[in-house]
Design a protein that fits this description.
Rossmann fold, seven-stranded parallel sheet, UDP-N-acetylglucosamine 2-epimerase (non-hydrolyzing), UDP_GlcNAc_Epimerase_2_dom, 2 domains, alpha/beta, UDP-N-acetylglucosamine 2-epimerase activity, six-stranded parallel sheet, about 375 residues, about 45% helix
């Protein structure tokens, strides 16, 4: 007897979203029970292309949600209008997958809900409970939680957050984080020779003995004084450690780009790069001694490479990385950044405590659990 087909739509708009839904798409395409439709909203167009190519994802619907100078409301309206055009094509969809907390996620979640299509929220239940940090992501994910049919929580803590908010426990499934699946897939596609070649292409010819710190910062809440404090901290650390190198792929937003280049243009120890494509970013995480970041994704990926993470935020919706000891919240406080960076450099025991923890985000098989749960819920066990 032929299995019933599950019509699955997967929506993404940014590179972090694609990285985390790519394992689901690829897994579903290998499973004869699923008919997969991939929708790219274009929220971040150029930054996504490398990951689309790397994972060899075929796009079925390519939208243009982003226009120059848009407000968040205008971005949301574009998303709602363009997604409705796709979702009203007469096809019955068993589920629409959204991932994370971007405006794409909110638009796809609300649009699907209004059209009575079941929403599956991947990476559900992350909470800072501070609507300003991160903004607008905290509001987006809380809103989507109210309309989702499936809540695929990456950790037990995120699942508990949803239960505390009176989400039906029968609709919550703790799966692990698909970013671990993505790293596992990416490692299969890379080898040491390619890794060395990528480094050379970036003009980074470090000796194996040289320690390298990967830095990223792009959050709105760190614009202005926050970015300046991060730069000042790094400047101090270069004076303490003349052999230490910092690699900083600088976000294109002028609020970040101008400040960072103002501090470090032509600095011998601080290597400023264009935003890295996904393979190069993974390669830099692998090469780094530790990571300084305000990125949610890097907080998750760092433990997959056994790299300590200094989190350049005052709160995190991924408390697991702090709870297990793989990361520490330093915000943009210069004294805290310098203190913990120096401990990682000078205290081997402290470094080992942070780098040798069990990955709190799962075993790399979250995608399989997500697909199986949806199929069984729709077509029976």
């Amino acid at each position: 007897m032929t299995a019933q087909k599950f019509k699955l739509s997967v929506v993404f708009g940014t590179r972090p979203e694609l990285i985390k839904v790519a394992p689901i798409i690829l897994q579903a395409q290998q499973d004869d029970r699923f008919d997969v439709e991939v929708i790219f909203t274009g929220q971040h167009d150029e930054l996504v292309r490398d990951a689309i190519d790397f994972f060899e994802i075929k796009i079925d619907h390519r939208l243009k949600m982003m226009n120059a100078g848009q407000s968040l409301n205008q971005l949301l309206i574009q998303g709602l209008q363009q997604l409705e055009t796709v979702f009203t094509d007469g096809q019955k969809r068993d589920a629409v997958i959204v991932q994370g907390d971007t405006t794409t996620v909110l638009a796809a979640g609300l649009s699907s809900f209004a059209l009575k299509q079941a929403v599956a929220h991947v990476e559900a239940g992350l909470r800072s409970y501070d609507m300003d940090h991160p903004f607008p992501e905290e509001g987006n994910r809380q809103l989507v939680s109210r309309v989702a049919r499936w809540h695929f929580a990456p950790t037990a803590q995120s699942g508990q957050n949803l239960k505390n908010e009176m989400i039906n426990p029968e609709h919550i499934c703790v799966t692990g984080n698909t970013v671990v699946d993505a790293v596992r897939l990416a490692k299969q596609r890379m080898d040491d020779g390619r890794s060395q070649k990528l480094m050379q292409e970036l003009g980074l010819n470090f000796n194996p003995e040289q320690k390298v710190v990967l830095v990223t910062a792009h959050r709105r809440e760190n614009f202005g004084e926050g970015i300046e404090h991060i730069c000042q901290s790094i400047q101090t650390l270069t004076e303490h450690y003349p052999e230490l190198n910092f690699v900083w792929p600088v976000h294109l937003n002028p609020a970040v780009h101008q400040v960072v280049h103002g501090f470090f243009k032509d600095h011998k120890q601080v290597h400023l790069l264009q935003p890295l494509d996904y393979p190069n970013l993974l390669n830099m995480m692998h090469r780094a001694y530790f990571i300084m970041t305000d990125s949610g994704g890097l907080q998750e990926e760092g433990p997959s490479f056994n790299k300590p993470v200094l989190i350049l935020r005052t709160t995190t919706e991924r408390p697991e990385v702090v709870d297990v000891g793989a990361g520490v919240l330093v915000g943009t406080d210069k004294e805290l950044i310098i203190e913990h960076a120096r401990r990682l450099m000078d205290d081997k025991k402290y470094y080992q405590q942070m780098s040798e923890v069990e990955n709190p985000f799962g075993d790399g098989h979250a995608s399989e659990r997500i697909l199986e749960r949806m199929y069984q819920d729709v077509f029976g066990r």
